[in-house]
Design a protein that fits this description.
With 120 residues, the chain is mostly helical. Helices cover 39% and strands 0% of the residues. The chain starts with a helix and ends in a 30-residue tail after the last helix.
Length: 120
């Protein structure tokens, strides 16, 4: 790079630092003065804006099991997943190959042989 670029960027950096350092911080109460007026501490609970989701409809477990049985049980969910995979394959999507997208890790260099300097 050209020395002119470095000189101009150095001048800009020095100017920015000097402007930042010259900012006057608003003076607060003297920490050594026990009678100094301080602003009150305001606490806002993180749960102030919390809204409950509402009551869940509790279904007896026997009714829930009957519903799952009518749907087809776990096999129905497995069938849905298999159908979705078949639809993607027929749409022209490439089948994932295990380990194909794994990042290749470079082999670490062998440690250089150096004499031990234990002072002995």
């Amino acid at each position: 790079m050209k020395p002119i670029f470095w000189a101009s960027s150095a001048r800009i950096s020095v100017a920015c630092i000097s402007v930042a350092c010259s900012q006057v911080v608003a003076a607060g109460p003297d920490p050594a003065d026990a009678a100094a007026a301080i602003p009150p501490t305001i606490y806002k609970s993180p749960f102030v804006d919390y809204r409950a989701l509402g009551e869940d409809k509790n279904t007896p477990w026997k009714d829930a099991n009957e519903t799952v049985g009518k749907i087809g049980g776990w096999r129905a969910y497995a069938r849905e997943a298999a159908d979705a995979m078949k639809a993607r394959e027929t749409a022209g999507a490439v089948k994932p190959v295990p380990g194909a997208n794994a990042p290749s890790m470079p082999t670490p260099p062998a440690p250089a042989l150096q004499p031990h300097k234990h002072g002995g």
